Amino acid sequence: MADTVGGSLAGYDMLFIPGGFGTRGLQHDRAFVDWIATAKDAPLKTSVCTGALLLGAAGFLTGKRATTHPGAYKELEPYCTTVLQQRIVDEGALITGGGVSTSIDLGLHLVERLMGNAGKDARARVAKQMDYPYS
Q: Environment class of residue 48 by beta-carbon count within 10 Å: exposed (0-12), middle (13-18) or buried (19+)?
């Protein structure tokens, strides 16, 4: 259950933006994009699928490489330096994932990143528990 809606995103450790058809319109909704931009100080900003369009509209992809759903590569181009046709693009404080199914890969990537030295083992354990056969 959400306990806050529409408040500032300042102070959060991570911003995760999912995709979907709604992102096409929301990237042009100034009030919504300004709200996303309040997460500028979040140490980690992530998206999957067309959520990258919202990260881009908020200015977080400037000078970065990124990815999104293959059907939105052209739409992502104005927001970043290079659109990569990859499942995960990790630019340090900014991570973008490709299409919808990439959300699992992104989750496992985050487990590995957030667990430090134990990351690879933690990722493998989570993937095994999920019966996820891909690496």
A: buried
Interior angle at CA 39, CA 47 and CA 104, nearest 5: 20
pTM for the model stands at: 0.91
The residue written with tokens 């083992």 in the block is 121
Distance CA 126, CA 129 (A): 5
The count of domains in the chain is: 1
Q: Which of 15, 36, 48, 49 is catalytic?
A: 49
In percent, the amount of the chain with pLDDT more than 90 equals 90
Residue 80 is a catalytic residue: no
Residue 130 domain-assigned? no
